[in-house]
Amino acid sequence: MSAPSPSPQPLVPGRIMSGEMAEQPAVLRRILDEGAPAIRRTAEEIAGRNPRFVLLTARGTSDNAALYAKYLLEVLLGKPCGLTSMSTTTAYEARADLTDCLVITVSQSGGSPDLVASTRAAREAGAITLAVTNNAASPLAEVSEFHIDVLAGPEKALPATKTYTAELLALYLFVDGMRGGDGAASAKALPELVESVLARGDEVKALAGRYRFAERMVITSRGYGYPTAKEAALKLMETSYIPALSYSGADLLHGPLAMVDNISPVIAVVTDGKGGAALQPVLDRLRDRGADLVVFGPEPQVDAASAGFVLPTEGLAEELQPVLEIVPLQMLAYEVTIARGQDPDAPRALAKVTETH
Question: Measuring CA to CA, which residue among 81, 85, 132, 135 is closest to residue 111?
């Protein structure tokens, strides 16, 4: 008699998302070692055409990466930038004169029809078009004049993690390449720093207990940290289903602060630099209101009045810190979701490739 077949092992909730978060140091090294030379060549060629302004096109997680690129382009290059509304092209069929404009479309899959259609229209309108994707064979890459592959490898969990940090680093290398910098050298510490954060899972798990029964959350930052606040809010909403509102610290003071009280969870993302300094008055106001405040930032920002997660930002340029600071917030979204008895790998009502038109 043959032995009975072993029972299939049950799938562990969140195992795919957890595994992909853990891949991030390797992905960042791959970009620095293998992708950086090609990104620099693309940057130099586009810089030689001297675009007069830049438009950024994206949706979802990639939209937050595009917002990060907007800060880079405006601060480091002095290029005026805007985030596009694709419906002006796809629904209203507007056709702007985009001569000498650089249009950067950021998409993990490169497959959403509205991204492809708006990029095609931009190229027909005279724009220099650059696609930043995780799929070099995608329709978006095919319709764009230039393409940057973020080299993240297949991403199977619905919440994007490694593709987001890959997009950030690729965009940084591109913008720095446009100004003739050595971005790969500046970013060489990132993989090891991300590894050190990933190793602190127990700290994040302890913080997650604060939010197991949260009914809403507010996440705030300023400057380069603002895209991180938006991405952290998105991760929490799509995995744990907690309504998470993200605000620039300045915008928070213009009205939404009124909803914050002593039972309102608030996460502040504090970059080590000018953005963090600009956020300090907001932190003071939040503490005055008795908010349940958790600070993700450099050690001087964490005090007895607030819980926090200390980010190892010493020696890391402010413009590179978003690649690091999102990682513990990805981990937080994962841990909160697990604590609430849900599976972060498969949020309800979502698909990996969202086909908007």
Answer: 135
Compute the distance between CA of residue 305 and CA of residue 297 in angstroms, rounded to an integer. Answer: 14
Amino acid, res. 72: L
User: Residue 292 CB: number of other CB atoms within 10 A?
Assistant: 20
Domains parsed from the chain with CATH numbers: 15-186 (3.40.50.10490), 200-339 (3.40.50.10490)
Q: Which pTM value belongs to this model?
A: 0.92
Angle at 116 between CA 114 and CA 121, to 5 degrees: 95
Number of residues that this document lists for the chain? 357
d(CA 322, CA 329): 11
Q: pLDDT digit string (tens) for 158-182?
A: 999 999 999 999 999 999 999 999 9
Residue 122: both structure tokens together: 């931009």
CA distance 174 to 104: 11
Name the token pair of 84: 């596009």
Tell me the C-alpha to C-alpha distance, in Å, between residue 35 and each of 146, 152, 177, 330.
Answer: 14, 11, 12, 24
- The residues facing 53 across adjacent strands are 101
